[in-house]
Write a structure and sequence with these properties.
Chain lengths: 152, 1150
């Protein structure tokens, strides 16, 4: 199936005008499959980390939202062990007017503002609620451990 | 022809005789008498009659006095022998008592004259009705009519011809032979019908008589057998022999009787029998041997002429072969058999006379016979069926398409090196090269032969025989000086005493160019360029300002057959509707004053053609007389019913034209039709047939043209049958087609539109055309209706297939398929009953439609569609601000598909825009997931009824000038969008109008009610349209076409496929929209050709709207499969068509 015009356009724009702190590069053999990197927002426990995600545009995109998941281990109440993300715009609040770019921005924002009231990883959310400082520390530690690129 | 000029007026009296002699020649061979003088051997015989001392016209000078004929065997020769003594011996009283009823004296007189004392003969004649014919005996045969003779010889031609009988114009030479002349003897078997002693012994003479079973014969003292009509048919070949007293002794064996009877019935031969062996004591059904002496009767040499239609009423059983043809056939077989029996062989014949040929002849004739028999049988079985139309009754196997192709391919091998001829300077048009080539060819055809003195050779179909000089007993026979020979045409059974000359070439032909190559123009150029000498003379005279009176005053001269030469006039016969077109084209093609045309039709028929067209009037004679087939037919019928007297009329048949042209000549393809027969009889020197389809579907179609052209020998049906029909029907296609090819080649010129000149250029450059299939997606509501009907049709069909009742249920199945096709166009069509009338199966369909209409499920589906489309008022009350915002937004990218600008911008109730399809797809997507569709921008719930398409009037010519922002309007989706197809059409048209605001288009549909549904949509889009369908009167149609042609703005013509398929010229349009597919593409192609034909100057684009995943798509496949198959050509029987259709339907529903 030919790539819909919309996907072509989005990809071109992601290349031409990249969003600061975010990159998304399609696979050469599957233009619906993107390798994504999101930089942890500053003044958040994820600052300094570079998080890898995979993003896939299903056949009924943009009627249906893209499928997206963290590949890098992250300590976050809205991301589960498998990297799945709890975000309304990726679920019920998806709209075909949203784009890859806007979704990635939303995820970046989610890193800056975890929402333990709508948890996906129950244990993480629990620790977050019980002892926020400890949780942030753990998050920071995980970031250091998994997300900070090793010096070559 | 010229002879009459030579004879001149003073020879009038003489001509009476010369004419009647020529009559025969002319009717038999259409040979110019001029050349006749070249053959002494034959001409020696000619004057015989005129010198006969007892001739009723002693005063007249012999035509060729240099050949005094010594033989006093003329006219009166037979008469005294028979009439003389008889007159005394006829006993009227005895005759009356035999007959029983009172017989009018004039009848008795006739019988007396012919039978003399032979009472038997008289009684027989009276009862079998032969006396009626005798009564018509030409006056010349009557005993001394001398006193009346001068009067009759100077009488008007009308009177003269009236005196001759229609078909039996006596030939001079006939006077010179005895009533009968011995040609041979043969032995036959007979069987007796009575018993007794010494009834018959060796050497006894017996009479050979024909049994006329219908009439009881009291003279024979035998109770008339009661016989049914069927029996009469069965036994009507019985030939019996009687002793001299007239007692029946027995009958001839059936084998012999079958042909002997024909020879006797047709007055060709006379048989005298002698008993060779008979047992002394005869019992019934005993075999006896007879020897029959056969003499040819004088009547055998009479020609048959203007009686073509006399036998039309012969009845159904003979319709396939006219009774005339049947007679010919019987006569032909009988003669061939006779000659075989008596061992008479031609002294001179052609290669064709080889023995094998003769066998083939018999074979052919017999085949026709068995076929007749089969037909009769079949018809008897099928007796209750309505009388078949003449169309169905045409005989001859239909041509398979590939044969037809092969034939045409051969006929189309047009040689591009043919020289060209320039038209005369009076011709106002310029011709294309290929037309000049045709002109050259036609001129060559017309001028052929006549100028060259051709060697005298015998006609290829005839055989020459020597009269025997000794009889079977070696006794010398009476000699008839100057008559050693006679001639037989074994193909037609014709006999002649004249030397049958090899015919001249046909001085005409068939111009069979495909439609649109300008056949009319080419013919007109010929009319201008090849004129007769007389016409040129007159033209010159006119030029030199001489007045008519200075021309020699020639009296009107009638030719031998009663026609008057019209040396300047070409007769054009065309379908009535084309008369005006012919006239205007003829005038347009001529410089002013160089061509006089006249339409001979209706009230304008009230002219005297012989007078205005004759040579004497050459200076003012019309150059072209245009008439219709109907006129020809009616004049022909008139003449035929008035005993075939051409001279007495003032119409077409009283004139011998310089040239006759049959336009649309396939109109005479059925040689049995009266029209065809009428056309055959038109007298003209040059004969042309114009047709795009010389063969419609039978080889016999071609025969009719050949017969019209009088192409020897192929205009002889027996010959045609022998060499073409029979091989063809015995599957010897190649031979038959080869022969046809040799027939066609010299006669036909045919070019097709797709021919290319050697340098690759098309013969006629038409602008390109492209055909594009536009896929249509049905809306959900439409799809529901469609699916419902589809499932239902499928169920019905396969249930019937299982039950084996498909043929029975054909109409109802077909009706359902029709519904299905309609639902692709517009669901409302399905419940529209009017539409029914458009298919043939109207009656049955009405029921089916009622069935559908009563169906509640379907009804609700349709209503749902209707609700979705004709929702109440258009809530078009928006603030200008909102509108302008929306308008500006239109140029943006669609948020959903990223198209830029949006396609059919549509806004939600919350004023957010996207492409229409994106919105609809999104809503569907959400609904399928059982989620409420929300606006992609503001997440408000979207009410699918509150969607508005933004309609821009930028394509509308009535809209404000472009300096202002284009007007827009919001249109609730559903309203005005009608069915998917209509929407697609409107979108196409509007795009087109944007690009090209003056272009014209034609929209075809086979459903006129669909056209009615398209109309409001066109109205809404402010598109100007006109409409033409089958319900309109001719005048209204013409008005519509005029309006369409003259219109200077963007115009659409709505045209029903059936009304618009033929004839129309719509070259002012450049776009064609086919709204629905027909079963065969040929029909659609023909419709397309209305636009893409000669005269079209621009590229033509054709759009075929086809609903995706529907029967329509499958119909396309069916079309592909049989693009060139029969149905479109009308070559299948109804039953076959149905079977084919059922196959199609199976494919549609699978």
């Amino acid at each position: 199936m030919a790539l819909p015009k919309r996907i072509v356009k989005e990809t071109e724009r992601l290349m031409a005008e990249p969003v600061p702190g975010i990159s998304a590069v399609p696979h050469e053999d599957n233009l619906r499959y993107f390798d994504v990197e999101i930089h942890g927002p500053s003044s958040s426990p994820y600052e300094g980390g570079v998080f890898k995600l995979e993003l896939f545009l299903p056949d009924d995109y943009p009627m249906a939202p893209p499928k997206i998941r963290f590949l890098t281990k992250i300590f976050h109440p809205n991301v589960d062990k498998l990297g799945r993300i709890c975000l309304d715009v990726l679920k019920n609040n998806w709209s075909p007017a949203l784009q890859i770019r806007t979704i990635l921005l939303s995820i970046q924002a989610l890193l800056g503002a975890p929402n333990p009231d709508d948890p996906l990883a129950a244990d993480v959310a629990k620790s977050w609620k019980e002892d926020e400082q400890a949780a942030i520390a753990t998050a920071r530690a995980w970031t250091q451990k998994y997300a900070v690129p090793k010096e070559a | 022809m010229d002879v009459s000029g030579i004879d001149g007026p003073p020879s009038k009296r003489r001509r009476f005789f010369a004419d009647s002699s020529d009559d025969i020649i002319d009717e038999a061979h259409a040979d110019p008498p001029v050349s006749r003088s070249a053959h002494d051997a034959d001409d020696e015989n000619l004057p015989v009659f005129s010198d006969a001392p007892s001739s009723p016209f002693p005063a007249k000078t012999p035509v060729a006095s240099s050949h005094p004929s010594p033989a006093p065997i003329a006219i009166t020769d037979p008469s005294p022998r028979e009439d003389g003594p008889n007159q005394a011996g006829f006993d009227r009283e005895m005759f009356q008592s035999f007959v029983g009823t009172s017989v009018p004296p004039n009848v008795i007189a006739v019988l007396e004259e012919h039978c003399g004392s032979d009472m038997n003969r008289a009684v027989n004649m009276y009862f079998d009705g032969t006396w009626k014919k005798l009564k018509r005996k030409p006056p010349g045969l009557r005993p001394p009519a001398a006193p009346a003779a001068p009067a009759s010889s100077s009488a008007t031609p009308a009177r003269r011809t009236a005196n001759e009988t229609a078909s039996r114009a006596p030939t001079s030479r006939l006077y010179a032979i005895p009533e009968s002349r011995y040609i041979g003897a043969f032995g036959v078997e007979g069987w007796t019908t009575r018993s007794g002693f010494n009834l018959l012994k060796h050497g006894d003479p017996v009479r050979i008589e024909r049994q006329k079973i219908q009439v009881p014969k009291p003279s024979l003292g035998k109770p008339g057998p009661r016989v049914s009509a069927a029996a009469a048919k069965r036994v009507d070949v019985i030939v019996r022999f009687t002793d001299l007293a007239g007692r029946e002794i027995g009958r001839l064996a059936k084998e012999t009787a079958s042909w002997v009877s024909a020879l006797m019935d047709q007055k060709i031969c006379k048989f005298e029998g002698t008993c060779v062996y008979a047992p002394e004591r005869l019992r019934t059904n005993e075999t006896v041997f007879l020897q029959l002496r056969c003499s040819l009767l004088r009547t055998a040499f009479l020609s048959r002429g203007f009686q073509a239609s006399d036998n039309r009423a012969a009845g159904r059983f003979e319709e396939a072969e006219t009774s005339e043809e049947r007679d010919l056939r019987l006569r032909q077989i009988a003669l061939v058999k006779l000659f075989q029996e008596i061992g008479l062989f031609p002294t001179r014949g052609n290669a064709a006379a080889a023995k094998s040929q003769r066998d083939r002849l018999l074979h052919a004739a017999e085949m026709a016979e068995t076929k007749e028999a089969e037909k009769t049988k079949a018809q008897a079985v099928d007796d209750s069926a309505a009388s078949p139309s003449s169309e169905e009754n045409e005989e001859g196997q239909e041509l398979e398409q590939d044969h037809l192709d092969a034939l045409y391919k051969k006929a189309q091998s047009f040689d591009f090196n043919t020289p060209e001829a320039e038209p005369a300077d009076t011709f106002a048009f310029s011709l294309r090269p290929y037309q000049k080539q045709a002109l050259h060819w036609m001129m060559a055809k017309e001028k052929d032969a006549k100028d060259q003195t051709r060697e005298e050779s015998m006609h290829p179909l005839w055989e020459e025989y020597a009269w025997p000089t000794k009889d079977h007993d070696d006794k010398p026979l009476p000699e008839h000086p100057n008559q050693p020979l006679f001639y037989v045409n074994p193909y037609s059974g014709e006999l002649s005493l004249e030397f049958p000359r090899q015919e001249q070439h046909c001085l005409g032909g068939i111009l069979a160019d495909e439609m649109g190559l300008g056949k009319t123009i080419q013919m007109l150029s010929l009319i201008h360029t090849h004129r007769s000498g007389v016409a040129l003379e007159a033209q010159r005279a006119a030029h030199s300002m001489s007045t008519v009176s200075q021309l020699p005053r020639l009296p009107m001269i009638r030719r031998r057959d009663g026609t008057v030469d019209a040396p300047c006039t070409t007769l054009v016969i065309a379908p009535m509707s084309l008369l005006a077109q012919w006239q205007s084209e003829a005038e347009n093609a001529s410089h002013e004053g160089t061509l006089r045309t006249m339409v001979y039709y209706g009230t304008e028929k009230n002219v005297d053609l012989p007078t205005i067209c004759c040579e004497a009037n050459a200076a003012n004679a019309p150059d072209v007389v245009i008439t219709s087939y109907g006129v020809v037919l009616s004049e022909f019928t008139q003449i035929a019913s008035g005993n075939g007297n051409r001279g007495g009329t003032r119409g077409i048949f009283s004139v011998n034209f310089f040239r006759v042209i049959l336009d649309e000549a396939h109109q005479i393809k059925n040689r049995q039709s009266k029209t065809a027969r009428a056309c055959y009889e038109i007298a003209a020197r040059h004969r042309w047939a114009l047709t795009g389809t010389p063969i419609v579907n039978r080889l016999e179609d071609l025969f009719s043209l050949v017969r019209f052209l009088r192409v020897e020998p192929w205009n002889n049906f027996s010959y045609w049958r022998t060499f073409i029909t029979v091989p063809f029907e015995s599957k010897d296609y190649m031979r038959a087609l080869d022969v046809v090819q040799t027939v066609l080649e010299p006669l036909v010129m045919r070019r097709t539109k797709d021919m290319k000149t050697p340098d690759g250029a098309p013969l006629v450059a038409l602008p390109p055309k492209t055909v594009e299939i536009v896929d249509i997606e049905l809306s959900k509501e439409e799809r529901d209706v469609y699916n419902y009907i589809f499932m239902r049709a499928k169920r019905t069909f396969f249930a019937n297939v299982e039950a084996g009742t498909v043929m029975k249920a054909f109409t109802s199945i077909f009706a359902q398929i029709l519904r299905l096709r309609q639902s692709c166009c517009h669901p409302l069509l399905v419940r529209n009953q009017e539409v029914v009338a458009e298919e043939e199966e109207a009656g049955a369909l009405a029921d089916a439609a009622a069935g559908l209409a009563d169906d509640m499920d379907l009804q609700s589906l349709i209503e749902r569609f209707a609700a979705a489309t004709d929702d109440g008022k258009d809530a078009n009350v928006f603030g200008a601000h909102v509108l302008s915002q929306i308008r500006d937004e239109a140029l943006n990218e669609c948020p959903i598909c990223a198209e830029e600008p949006m396609i059919n911008q549509t806004v939600t109730g919350c004023w957010h825009s996207a492409c229409k399809n994106c919105i609809l797809e999104y809503i569907r997507h959400q609904t399928d997931k059982h989620e409420v569709p929300r606006c992609w921008q503001c997440r408000q719930a979207i009410n699918s009824r509150d969607l508005f398409e933004v309609v821009r009037y930028d394509d509308d010519p009535d809209a404000p000038p472009p300096s202002q922002a284009p007007r827009i309007m919001l249109q609730r989706i559903g309203i005005g969008s009608s069915s998917a197809k209509v929407v697609a059409l409107i979108n196409h048209l509007r795009d087109l109008r944007r690009e090209n605001p003056t272009i014209k288009s034609v929209v075809f549909s086979q459903f006129t009610s669909f056209l009615s549904l398209i109309e409001p949509a066109l109205d809404r889009a402010n598109i100007h349209f006109v409409r033409l369908d089958g319900t309109m009167a001719q005048k209204a149609r013409a008005a519509v076409l005029d309006e369409f042609r003259e219109s200077k703005k963007f115009t659409v013509l709505l045209l029903s496929l059936k009304a618009g398929g033929v004839g129309l010229n719509l070259t002012s349009a450049q776009r064609v929209y086919m709204m629905d597919p027909w079963w065969s593409f040929a029909v659609e192609a023909q419709a397309i050709d209305r636009v893409h034909r000669m005269g079209q100057e621009n590229e033509v684009k054709i759009y075929r709207f086809i609903v995706k995943d529907s029967v329509e798509q499958r119909m396309l496949k069916i079309q592909d499969r049989k693009k060139f198959i029969a149905t479109s050509l009308g070559m299948m029987s109804d039953e076959e068509k149905k079977l084919q259709r059922i196959e199609d339907i199976k494919e549609l529903l699978s």
